[in-house]
Amino acid sequence: MLTGKQKRFLRAKAHHLSPIFQVGKDGVNDNMVKQIGEALEKRELIKISVLQNCMEDKDIVAEQIVEQTNAFLVQVIGSTIVIYKESEENKQIKLP
């Protein structure tokens, strides 16, 4: 689990990032989860945008992604999801 201090730190880091994935009307699928997992290994902290035509609630989408990638949910703000997963080979972010 992430502490409040760690989440604040990650939110500040994520502020400047652009969403690199978009969840549309098809929702979350296996291929997307695989790509998100690979992106997390490279970047550790990513933003995902939930489009308006997505049939599922953004909180449910966030829960599915976090569960299937074993990542941590940093925040859901508006239609943007911020998730973090510590990289095994490419550690860049040092949590407080």
TrEMBL record:
Entry keyword set: RNA-binding
Pfam families, alphabetized: CRS1_YhbY
GO molecular function, one term: RNA binding
Keyword NADP part of the UniProt annotation: no
Domain CRM: 1-96
Highest taxon above the source species: Bacteria
Keyword RNA-binding belongs to the record: yes
Cited InterPro entries: RNA-binding_CRM (IPR001890), RNA-binding_domain (IPR051925), RNA-binding_YhbY (IPR017924), YhbY-like_sf (IPR035920)
Name used for this protein in its record: RNA-binding protein
Originating species: Saliterribacillus persicus
